[in-house]
Amino acid sequence: MACWKVRHSALGVAVGAVLSMMISVAAPAATLEPRGDKVFFGISDTGDPADFGAFSQVMNKHPALIQTFRTWGSDFPESIERWQDARARPVIHITTADNNDGHELITPQAIAQGYGDGYLIRLNRLFWAKKMRAYIRPLGEPNRCINIYASYDCAGNWRDTAHSPRQYKRALRRIHVIVHGGGKRGEIDARLAQAGLPPLQGNVGGLPKAPVAILWSTLPAGSPTIPQNRPRHFYPGRDYVDWVGTDFYSDNQDWKALTGLYRRFRGKPFALPEWGVVGADDSRFVRSLLTWVDRHPRCKMLIYYQDFGATSSYRLQNYPASLVALRQWLHSPRIPHFAPSPPKAPPAPPGGLTPITRR
């Protein structure tokens, strides 16, 4: 199997020079969940900052979160700028499908074996250096057949060993250990060994403790809905998951599976990292889902997926009754306008010049 290689960013080189003085030895524990009965609401990132502002304006509510979809190995300075401009805490979904032609960049097995460690180390150092709190959602919907990292195709056939549920779980464990960081090289290797994984790849003395939480999310019942494609087969273990989540849309309402997933993984904060109205106005669905959230107190996060473009079938502004139903719910004091310590734009240098952050 070919090794997955990633280049070192300038940030990684600079941070690496001071790691020995800055590493925290404490094991990561924070889930970044809101306090008390608060619930974080967010929207997906379309790539256009104006869309975030337009949604905020029509709802008369600032979303606390913004979810960005990124490709394995890619840098995302423009995304960071949008998070900072919006002052919204990021949720980052990571896919292994190439953004241009869709080919697979790295398999779950290769991630588990350490061939993607360079990228995971970069993520750890990035969020530590920027002191930016974030939720990392790697390889979401592993039980959706159209995803390139899925274990089963749409006919229900097993793909291969490199994409098996076992390798997916091992990949998620590795991502959790490395992206969280927090220890010298020997401590990181010990955590990997405890997870049944090979040691850290790369010439690093240790990893700082990044202010991140790992969100594991599947479809409620699977696509296809065969027994071996149920969410439980992809759970990497409670020690390697900070949040449990699932996606839920108006055109595929499996309420029994949604509630079953919530109940199965007790003790973890629950998220709906994608939900939305699809194809037709459906205020009844919106009210039902929001009532479900109110009645399930561990559900602490929900993010509306708005897709791309004004004519999208997911765009809530095209569904007046659904929009009103959501807007009424959002104005509860339980839904904060901001998450604590939201991303902030870097200060301008002396002389009033705009800092250069793109590369």
Write a concise keyword list for the protein shown above:
single chain; 10 strands; 11 helices; 359 residues; alpha/beta; disordered C terminus; TIM Barrel
Given the helix and strand composition, which structural class is it?
Answer: alpha/beta
Strand content: 15-25%
* Largest sheet: number of strands, sense, barrel closure: 8 strands, parallel, barrel
- The CATH homologous superfamily is called Glycosidases
Taking pLDDT < 50 over at least 5 consecutive residues as the criterion, the unreliable ranges are 1-29, 353-359
Provide the CATH architecture.
Alpha-Beta Barrel
Number of strands: 10
The overall pLDDT average reads 90
Quickly count the helices: 11
Order of helices and strands: HHEHEHEHHEHEHEEEHEHEH
CATH class: Alpha Beta
Explain how this protein is built.
The structure is a single chain. The protein is α/β, with parallel strands linked by helices. The protein has one domain: Glycosidases (TIM Barrel). Helix content is 31%, strand content 15%. The protein has 11 helices and 10 strands. The strands form 2 sheets. An 8-stranded parallel beta barrel has the order 1-2-3-4-7-8-9-10, surrounded by 4 helices. A two-stranded antiparallel ribbon has the order 5-6. Strand 9, helix 10 and strand 10 form a beta-alpha-beta unit. The chain is globular, with a radius of gyration of 20 Å. The two termini are 32 Å apart.
